[in-house]
Design a protein that fits this description.
Layout: H1 4-7, H2 12-26, H3 31-42, H4 48-59, H5 65-88, E1 93-94, E2 97-98, H6 100-126, H7 130-154, H8 161-186, H9 191-215, H10 229-232, H11 238-246, H12 249-261, H13 266-278, H14 281-300, H15 307-321
Antiparallel strand pairs: 1-2
Helix pairs in contact: 2-5, 4-5, 4-8, 4-15, 5-6, 5-7, 5-8, 7-8, 8-9, 9-14, 9-15, 11-13, 11-14, 14-15
C-alpha cells in the first residue's frame, strides 16, 4: 500500500506552502501562548485533513488562495476541539506527545482552545470567507452534538446500529466531509458539486471510524494483543453492537455486565474480544466499512477523471487499509 508521503506527491509543493501559512496563523504576541502554539505545530499528525482539502480543490477546478485559508481554518478549529477533548477526557497524551493540559494544566488548555477557535473565526472574517466558515462551523457543531449523544447513550449502553452511525457521522465523518466541501467550495465550483463532495467525505469518514473501531479488537503491532481500549471505556462500537444483536439473552447479559462492571479486568475484556470474533462482529464491521468506501467511490465517479481524483481514491484506500 502507498504511504501518505507517496500519495501526497501531486500536492507536495502546495502542502509545504500551507505549512508555512499555518505556522504564521498560529503565532501570538503573548510569549506563553506563542510557546504553546510552537509545541502544537511541532507535534502535527499525518495531515490527512489538509490533504483532503487540497485534493478536493484541485479535482474540482484548482487550488486557490481560498484553499489555503480553508485548510488553515479546518486545522485551527479541529486542533481547538482536540485540546478541549483532552481536558474533558483528562488525557495526558495526544499522538504520543504530552497533551496541553498535561504540561500546562486545564485552565491554560481551555484558554488555548478558545484562542485557536478565535483565530479561525477571525481569519475567515478578515478574508471574507463566509461560505468556508459556515461549512466548518457546522462540522464543529455536529462534532459536539455527536460527543454528547455518545455520552448520553453510553450511560445506558443502549446503542444500536442506527445510533452508532449517527454518532460517528457527527463525531468523525462531519469533519472529513467539511474538508472535502471546503476544498470544493474554495475552487469556486457549483453548489451541487460542493454538496456531492460533502457526501463523499461523510462516507469516507464513516469508513475511517469503523476501521478505527476494528483496531480495538485486532492484534496490536507492538504488543501482539488487542488493546480493548473501547471496552475499558464502555464504548459500544460496530463489531460489539452487531455481536450483541445476534447473541442469546444469557450471553448478551453476561457481556453487558462485563462492560459495565468488569471492564478493567484484562481477562474479562479478553472474553468480550473473543465473543466479538466468534460472533462474526469483525467480519460484519469490515463488510459495512467496505460498503461506505464503495459509496464514496461511486460519488467520485461523477467527477471528471484527473490525477487528483486518482489521488483521492488512493487516500480513501489508505484510510481503510492502514495498519495504525
Amino acid at each position: 500500500m502507498l504511504s501518505l508521503d507517496e500519495i501526497k506527491i501531486p500536492i507536495k509543493n502546495e502542502m509545504e506552502l500551507f505549512e508555512k501559512k499555518f505556522h504564521d496563523a498560529m503565532r501570538s504576541k503573548a510569549p506563553l501562548l506563542d510557546k504553546i502554539m510552537h509545541y502544537i505545530v511541532k507535534r502535527k499528525g499525518k495531515q490527512m485533513r489538509p490533504m483532503f482539502v487540497f485534493f478536493s480543490a484541485a479535482m474540482c477546478g484548482g487550488i486557490t488562495e481560498s484553499t489555503y485559508t480553508g485548510a488553515s481554518l479546518i486545522e485551527l478549529l479541529h486542533t481547538a476541539t482536540l485540546v478541549h477533548d483532552d481536558v474533558v477526557d483528562d488525557s495526558n497524551l495526544r499522538r504520543g506527545f504530552f497533551s496541553i493540559n498535561a504540561l500546562w494544566k486545564n485552565k491554560i488548555a481551555v484558554l488555548v482552545g478558545d484562542y485557536l477557535l478565535s483565530r479561525g473565526l477571525l481569519m475567515s472574517v478578515e478574508k471574507k470567507e463566509f461560505d468556508l466558515l459556515e461549512i466548518v462551523s457546522n462540522a464543529v457543531r455536529e462534532m459536539s452534538e455527536g460527543e454528547l449523544l455518545q455520552i448520553e447513550k453510553a450511560r445506558k449502553l443502549d446503542i444500536d446500529e442506527s445510533v452508532y452511525y449517527e454518532i460517528i457521522r457527527q463525531k468523525t465523518a462531519s469533519l472529513i466531509a467539511s474538508c472535502c466541501a471546503v476544498g470544493a467550495s474554495s475552487a469556486k465550483t457549483d453548489k451541487q458539486s460542493v454538496s456531492r463532495m460533502n457526501q463523499f467525505g461523510e462516507n469516507v469518514g464513516i469508513a475511517f471510524q469503523i476501521k478505527d473501531d476494528l483496531f480495538d479488537y485486532e492484534k496490536n503491532l507492538k504488543t501482539g494483543k488487542p488493546s480493548g481500549i473501547d471496552i475499558k471505556e464502555s464504548k459500544m462500537t460496530l463489531p460489539l453492537i452487531y455481536s450483541l444483536s445476534k447473541a442469546q439473552n444469557s450471553d448478551k447479559r453476561k457481556i453487558i455486565n462485563i462492560i459495565k462492571n468488569d471492564n478493567t479486568n484484562d481477562k474479562k475484556v479478553a472474553e468480550v474480544i473473543s465473543f466479538v470474533h466468534t460472533s462474526g462482529g469483525m467480519d460484519y464491521a469490515k463488510k459495512r466499512m467496505g460498503d461506505f468506501q464503495q459509496k464514496s467511490f461511486e460519488i467520485l465517479s461523477s467527477f471528471p477523471d484527473n490525477i487528483f481524483k486518482e489521488s483521492l481514491i488512493k487516500l480513501v484506500r489508505f484510510t481503510t487499509e492502514r495498519d495504525n
